[in-house]
Amino acid sequence: MKKWITSAAILAAAFFPRAALAAEGAGAEHGSWLLLMFFTINFALFVFVLVYFAGPPLRKFFADRAVTIRTALSRLQSALAEAEDLANKAAARMAALSAELKQVADELEQETAFRVGKVKDLAKSTAERIRRDAETSHYAMAEAAKRRVRAQLAESAATVARDLISRNFQPNDQGRLIDGFMDKLGSGDPR
User: Is the dihedral of CA 84, 74, 71, 65 positive or negative?
Assistant: First the structure.
């Protein structure tokens, strides 16, 4: 029976708070305890209703939220691992590119040295050819000059001889020349 009265008092306090507050005014020393009990019961009922009705959705919300957080965390960890992998690959690629750049620079330097050597050899051979051509031209020009001088001398000698012959040649000299020529032809001496 006490249980029933206590349950009825709790329900009455929960649903009819005015009655509980009126009971406070009845006794000053019992009123504060009654009021405390009323608020405690009210709070307990509030918590019970909250847990009973809001508990499953809250549990579902927090479970879903935990799944979302775990999923995001796993995606972020995989993204971090992928980013670290990409960073390591990029660092390895940079090192390879640095080595490749050094190799290309060495090859370019060797090729440049080879080309410079070829140009130097070509310049030497061209200079030698130009020197030989200059010597040949010099000798050719000297020979041409000698031929021109000889031709000029021959022409001058012919002119002088013609002048001398025309001045000093007599008709009897002409007969003597022809006779000497005929004798040479008959003897077989071509001089």
Answer: negative
* Cα diameter, the chain: 199
In sequence order, the 6+-apart residues with CB closer than 8 A to the CB of 51 are none
99: helix, coil or strand? helix
**Nearest C-alpha neighbor of 19 from the set 40, 1, 4, 34:** 34
Identity of the highest mean pLDDT range in 20-24, 51-55, 78-82, 122-126: 78-82
Between 20 and 58, the more confident residue is 58
Cα separations in angstroms, 124 against 12, 49, 117, 130: 124, 108, 10, 10
Angle between the N-to-C axes of helices 28-49 and 2-15, in degrees from 0 to 180, rounded to the nearest 10: 80
Residue ranges with strand state E in 55-134: none
Better-predicted residue by pLDDT, 96 or 30? 96
Cβ neighbours of 38 (radius 10 Å):
22
C-alpha of 59 from chain center: 56
Q: At 96, is the secondary structure helix, strand, or coil?
A: helix
pTM exceeding 0.70: no
- Rounded to whole angstroms, the Cα distance separating 93 from 82 reads 16
Question: Cβ(41)–Cβ(14) under 8 Å?
Answer: yes
